[in-house]
Design brief:
Helix 2 crosses helix 3. This protein is elongated. By secondary structure, the chain is mostly helical. It is built from four helices and no strands. The protein has a domain of 52 residues. This is Transposase Tc1-like domain-containing protein. It comes from Staurois parvus.
Length: 80
């Protein structure tokens, strides 16, 4: 892949990290005229330091809820 193609690929992924490799390959084909397979897109992104998709956000758990959840686990393991 050329330097221009790598820059376009990196810019595309930075804009929207939830895109699939197939959609990124189609976008590069329409914008730059680059013929790339989704496997090549994944391989190049892995080499650039992009590993998988962004993590899902998790609900906030307060310390009070943590202690309640752990209390149930302790009772189940100790039998009390």
């Amino acid at each position: 892949m050329t330097g221009r193609g790598q820059r376009m690929l990196k810019r595309t992924v930075r804009r929207s990290r939830q895109l699939s490799a197939e959609s990124i390959a189609k976008d590069l084909q329409t914008w730059c005229g680059l013929q790339m397979s989704p496997t090549t897109v994944r391989r190049d992104l892995h080499g650039m330091g992009f590993h998988g998709r962004a993590a899902a956000s998790k609900p906030s758990i307060t310390s009070a809820m943590q202690s309640v959840g752990c209390r149930g686990v302790k009772h189940a393991t100790t039998g009390l």
